């Protein structure tokens, strides 16, 4: 398919995939974690860490224009076919499980208007979610450009209620409330103190682990970009815009309600905060905004999940069938496989709602590993001096890469070691697809180095299964 996604479409993919439901729950989640002072410190650290990661994707898009697929391509180019496969496979599983999360939460939100959908896991809600899933499926089958255009429109629509909230909050902001207990020394949440400054900083940073997922969206779509340099620009623009929205929503909320009261607002807490300020219409307005936001995130992640299968299939890392495109240029086989998995997990949630919630955390941990490989690849290029033979910036890129790598390691730690253990089980089972792809292309399965990696994955998976069987590891 002829590449043709411009800067606007690529930026919309980044913003659309990053803004889902997290920002709408941010006021109460952060209020339960930290006072304004530690919050500002935490946002500064998080902002720098994620900015370095954004710079990694920008730099790699420029220095390695021949590497397509973002997190998959960088992992494969730097560390071999099998690591590239694990990056793509983990990203794909994370993407479609995340789509189940969006669908369930979307219909739970619609329960505000239609009681039959309340909770998001009722029979009417699952039927509605299934219908919506296949509408999005049909739209995507009509071409990636068509779906990307719709995503631009939906992204703009979902940002509007957030901007309205920020405007109203800025007008109603009370500096006295914001500074009442700036360092959280006296505030108690559910009878418990917030702890010291660094404890609060750590707690708020744990909340931010999930809100920046999607920053790599433009890099994943690099092959379809009209201009390669727009990939890096879209990544930085999208990140900067979303960071500004997150920080403003978060900090302004502290000037509208006392922190302890804010921490007790039910999710989506942005709706409760606005209702407290302007009346009941505020809650309805934000609920509608959340529905639109979830629709946009669903569409963005459908696009990402099929693209992350298509590219490896072109390079004998996934079965060739997953690269097959229809007359509209949409990877049809990958799309069918992805959405059939979404449909199956939707049905599973009817009987296993709590299991579903934990799977979402697992999925998020799976998507963090590709960030680590991308940052490590930039460090590798800078250490080797590769692509720097006739240009400057090697030291700068090495520093950026090291900071981004350290932050990616911290994200994995914060996400929970138990999910990393279980991720190994997914990688081991998914390796069947890799072996299938190598066999049909008549290529060697593993190099000697990759055999070591496979051995580590297998041992980790066995340990995880043993811990699960004895009840010492519980994520499901």
Automatic annotation (TrEMBL):
InterPro entries, per database record: AA/rel_permease1, Amino_acid_antiprt, APC_superfamily, Arg/Orn_antiprt_ArcD
Sequence similarity: Belongs to the amino acid-polyamine-organocation (APC) superfamily. Basic amino acid/polyamine antiporter (APA) (TC 2.A.3.2) family.
Main location, first listed in the record: membrane
Gene label: arcD
GO biological-process terms attached to the record: L-arginine catabolic process; L-arginine transmembrane transport
Transmembrane segments: 43-61, 82-115, 121-141, 148-173, 204-222, 234-258, 278-306, 327-348, 360-383, 395-413, 419-437, 449-469
Species, as recorded: Mycolicibacterium agri
High-level lineage: Bacteria, Bacillati, Actinomycetota, Actinomycetes, Mycobacteriales
Keyword Transport included in the entry's annotation: yes
GO CC annotation, single: plasma membrane
Protein name: Arginine-ornithine antiporter
This protein's UniProt keywords: Amino-acid transport, Cell membrane, Membrane, Transmembrane, Transmembrane helix, Transport
Bilayer topology term: Multi-pass membrane protein
Function, in words: Probable amino-acid or metabolite transport protein.
Molecular function (Gene Ontology), one example: arginine:ornithine antiporter activity
Cell location: Cell membrane
């Amino acid at each position: 398919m002829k590449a043709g996604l411009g800067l606007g479409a690529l930026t919309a993919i980044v913003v659309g995939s990053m803004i889902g439901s997290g920002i709408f729950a941010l006021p109460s989640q952060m209020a339960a974690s930290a006072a304004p002072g530690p919050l500002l410190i935490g946002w500064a650290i998080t902002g720098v860490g994620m900015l370095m990661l954004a710079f990694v994707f920008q730099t790699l898009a420029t220095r390695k224009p021949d590497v397509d697929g973002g997190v998959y391509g960088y992992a494969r180019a730097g560390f071999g076919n099998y690591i590239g496969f694990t990056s793509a496979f983990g990203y794909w599983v994370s993407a479609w499980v995340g789509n189940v999360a969006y669908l369930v939460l979307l219909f739970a939100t619609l329960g505000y208007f239609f009681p039959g959908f309340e909770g998001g896991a009722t029979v009417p809600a699952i039927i509605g979610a299934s219908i919506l899933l296949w509408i999005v499926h049909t739209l995507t089958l009509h071409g990636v450009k068509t779906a990307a255009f719709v995503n631009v429109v939906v992204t703009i629509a979902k940002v509007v209620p957030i901007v309205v909230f920020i405007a109203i909050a800025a007008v109603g902001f009370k500096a006295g409330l914001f500074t009442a207990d700036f360092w959280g020394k006296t505030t108690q949440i559910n009878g418990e103190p917030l702890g010291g400054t660094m404890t609060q900083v750590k707690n708020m940073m744990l909340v931010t682990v999930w809100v920046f997922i999607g920053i790599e969206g433009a890099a994943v779509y690099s092959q379809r970009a009209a201009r390669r340099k727009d990939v890096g620009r879209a990544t930085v623009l999208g990140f900067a815009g979303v960071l500004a929205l997150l920080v403003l929503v978060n900090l302004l909320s502290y000037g509208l309600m006392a922190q302890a009261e804010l921490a007790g607002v039910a999710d989506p807490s942005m709706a409760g905060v606005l209702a407290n300020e302007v009346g009941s219409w505020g809650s309805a307005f934000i609920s509608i905004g959340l529905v639109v936001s979830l629709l946009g995130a669903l569409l963005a992640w459908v696009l990402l999940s099929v693209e992350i299968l298509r590219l490896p299939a072109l390079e004998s890392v996934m079965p060739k069938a997953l690269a097959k495109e229809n007359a509209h240029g949409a990877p049809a086989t990958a799309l069918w496989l992805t959405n059939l998995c979404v449909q199956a997990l939707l049905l599973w949630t009817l009987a296993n709602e709590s299991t579903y919630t934990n799977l979402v955390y697992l999925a998020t941990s799976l998507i963090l590993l590709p960030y680590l490989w991308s940052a490590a690849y930039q460090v590798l290029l800078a250490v080797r001096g590769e692509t720097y033979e006739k240009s400057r910036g090697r030291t700068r890129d090495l520093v950026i890469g090291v900071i981004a790598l350290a932050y990616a390691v911290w994200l994995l730690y914060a996400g929970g070691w138990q999910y990393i253990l279980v991720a190994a089980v997914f990688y081991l089972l998914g390796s069947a697809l890799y072996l299938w792809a190598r066999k049909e292309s008549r290529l060697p399965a593993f190099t000697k180095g990759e055999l070591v990696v496979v051995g580590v994955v297998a041992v980790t998976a066995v340990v995880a299964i043993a811990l699960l069987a004895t009840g010492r590891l519980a994520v499901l």
